[in-house]
Specification:
alpha+beta, 467 residues
Length: 467
């Protein structure tokens, strides 16, 4: 009996998907996707940054795609229900007329209009929606705390992909020429399902955007593009990150390609450098000497000392105004973190006058083509950096490569100091450094972390008052 019920449910589910996709113009597919009644769970399109993007791309994003925290949502902002596997088990919405939970499957691909927030009879805060497809009211019940407390978090409302970014991207990108920056993209294999296959493409290839639709909750904008041979591919990207559910520091490693600037370069930005310089974009280089580079994250800028023989991929080159210098965007080969370095391609030793830098700024002096062979860091440290972990003995620069900038720092009276990171699970990670700047230990206990941070802050305040 259970098998019969399951088969019937799957049949109804697939019929529902087919009916929705035939009328929903937000669901777009690449060429060659086959019509089928089978819904696949293939996960390439849901694979697991704006750090590292060029100035033109940054301006394009900031001018056209505003981030809205839940606190700033406006009446009638438009979202689509895009449940993932977990959401099929844990229901997100309740029917406003009955208060009963509603299956995410039944709401899949339906459009929700935001209708403000309220407090229910039991004291729980509600985030309210009107379903555009069936004209029924639903709400998401915030598990704990008030709306004001909850809305400042990155969690937002589960399952919802923000369609405002999709609508804007359609206007701004369809028909435009882009250049590829990643190597990994996807094609659809099922017209009525979610099946996809991964494809490897060459960076810097010129493509044209043909369609824009909805992707996933985390990466809501599905950009379909065509190469010069007429083949179509797609990438799901987060642009404004509104309700993405992911923090900025989670867009690293493989997730970098799911930022617009991680997969695409605007034509205007690439054309800003000469053809001679553009040929370097996408090339692998390594440092011949130790040098300082800039790393950015969480709105902060930090200068890091990069050792010799460190391997990078050149992500971008942007000219600096009234100068022979360009700003290089470099992705480190081990950690995939983004760095910036101002260099000139004009040999300073042979030119006088307009070159205002040093020999160390000359690209040909500092970099060599290809991958470096010798590493100062141990294999264990390099592995930890790649995995985003901290291990004993790491330096401050190595911790910054692995974890990014700390959210807080704390000083001790004995010369030791700590870096404090906010974790996605609500806890704090504290990294302890000795006087020489080497890691001596870590702590992930929330209560101890808070107590320690408070104590150090009090010590610092007391010391200042004595002065």
């Amino acid at each position: 009996m259970k098998k019969v019920f399951l088969a019937a449910s799957l049949s109804l589910f697939c019929m529902s998907l087919s009916a929705q996709q035939s009328t929903n113009d937000y669901i777009v597919k690449t060429k060659g996707a086959k019509k089928t009644a089978v819904s696949s769970e293939a996960g390439g399109g849901n694979a697991e940054g704006e750090e590292g993007e060029g100035q033109k791309a940054h301006d394009f994003i900031s001018e056209n795609f505003r981030f809205y925290s839940l606190c700033d949502w406006k009446e009638d902002m438009k979202f689509m229900v895009m449940p993932e596997k977990y959401d099929m088990v844990v229901k997100t919405f309740r029917d406003a007329s009955t208060g009963k939970e509603v299956s995410s499957v039944s709401l899949r691909h339906k459009i929700m209009l935001y209708k403000g927030h309220s407090v229910g009879a039991d004291g729980h805060a509600h985030v309210n929606f009107l379903c555009q497809d069936n004209n029924k009211n639903y709400y998401y019940e915030i598990p704990n705390g008030s709306f004001d407390d909850y809305c400042y978090t990155k969690m937002g409302v589960p399952t919802l992909a923000y369609l405002g970014d999709v609508d804007t991207a359609r206007v701004k990108l369809v028909g435009k020429t882009l250049f590829l920056k990643s190597k990994t993209y996807y094609v659809d294999t099922e017209y009525d399902g979610d099946g996809v296959q991964e494809r490897t493409l060459e960076p810097n290839e010129e493509v044209t955007v043909t369609k824009v639709g909805v992707g996933t909750r985390s990466f809501p904008v599905k950009i379909i593009f065509e190469d010069k041979k007429g083949n179509e591919y797609f990438q799901n990207v987060a642009i404004s990150k509104t309700n993405s559910g992911m923090r900025d520091d989670e867009f690293i490693m493989d997730n970098t390609k799911h930022l617009f600037a991680g997969s695409f370069e605007l034509q205007d930005a690439l054309m800003a450098v000469s053809k001679d310089l553009a040929q370097y974009i996408g090339k692998v280089v390594h440092t011949k000497y130790t040098t300082n580079m800039i790393s950015r994250g969480d709105g902060k800028e930090r200068t890091l000392k990069v050792p010799r023989m460190t391997t990078f991929i050149i992500e971008n080159l942007l000219p600096k105004n009234n100068s022979s210098y360009v700003t290089m965007t470099l992705k480190e080969n081990e950690s995939h973190r983004i760095y910036f370095k101002d260099v000139t391609f004009t040999n300073i030793d042979n030119v006088a006058g307009d070159i205002d830098g040093r020999r160390e700024d000359y690209f040909g002096y500092l970099f060599a083509m290809g991958e470096g062979k010798v590493r100062k860091q141990s294999q264990a440290v390099r592995a930890a950096i790649r995995q985003g972990r901290v291990i004993l003995g790491m330096t401050e620069d190595e911790v910054a490569m692995a974890m990014g900038e700390p959210n807080q720092t704390a000083e001790s009276s004995n010369g030791r100091h700590d870096w404090i990171y906010n974790r996605s699970n609500g806890k704090l990670l504290i990294v302890y450094f000795d006087r020489s700047g080497k890691v001596t230990g870590t702590n992930v206990d929330r209560s101890k972390a808070r107590k320690r941070t408070t104590t150090k802050t009090q010590k610092s305040s007391a010391a200042k008052s004595k002065k």
